[in-house]
Amino acid sequence: xxxxxxxxxxxxxxxxxxxxxxxxxxxxxxxxxxxxxxxxxxxxxxxxxxxxxxxxxxxxxxxxxxxxxxxxxxxxxxxxxxxxxxxxxxxxxxxxxxxxxxxxxxxxxxxxxxxxxxxxxxxxxxxxxxxxxxxxxxxxxxxxxxxxxxxxxxxxxxxxxxxxxxxxxxxxxxxxxxxxxxxxxxxxxxxxxxxxxxxxxxxxxxxxxxxxxxxxxxxxxxxxxxxxxxxxxxxxxxxxxxxxxxxxxxxxx
Length: 253
Known about the structure:
The protein is mostly helical. The chain is about 55% helix and about 0% strand. It is built from ten helices and no strands. The longest helix has about 40 residues, at about 215-250. The two termini are about 85 Å apart.
C-alpha cells in the first residue's frame, strides 16, 4: 500500500514540481556559464569535502592565503630545474651469434602477413625440434598421409615416426583433419530436377531370369484353389455353429 501511495505522490506532485519552468531555469544557467564577466562557478562538492574545507578555513585561515599567493623563490627554482636522460649502455654480454641471429623484422603486421611459424619453415630453412614436438609442415604431412592411406598410417606409426605421445596423436587425428574439395555440380543445369530412375556411375547391372508363363499361371490357379478351400471350411464351421445354437434353444423350451 505504501509503495502505491509513494508512486502516486511522485507522479502527481513531485514530478510536476521538478519539471516546473525547467526550460527557463536551464537557459538561465547556460547564460551564466557563457558570460565571461560572471564569477567562476565551480563544480559541486561532496558534503564531507565541503565540511572539511569549511573547517580548514575556520581553524587555519592563513593556510588558504599562502596557497593563493605566488611564491617567487619557488618559481625561480623551478626555472633552473632541467631533466636530462640518456639511454643505458648496451650489455656487452649480449652479443649476436652467427648461428642464432637477432630478429631483423621489426615491422608491424601488414596486409600480406605470414605467420612466423610458416616464415621459419620456408625452403632452405631447417631447425631441430625437441622430442615430442612437430613443426607445422610435419603436422600437415602426417594428417595428409593418414587421409591418403584411409587410416592405415595410424596412431602407432605416427607416434613412432615423429616421436610423439600416443595420447596426443590420438587426440590430434580425432579433432584435426585436412580440408578436401567436394564438387556439388552433378548435372549441366542445376535448375532441372534429377531423374531418380536414371542410372548413376556407382550402379551395378543385375541380370534377372524370366520365369515360364505356364508355371506362373499354374501357381496362380493353386493359390485360388487354396483360397476356395479355406472359404468352404469357414462356411461349414459357421453352419455347424448355427445348428448347434438352434438345437440348444429347442431343448430349453
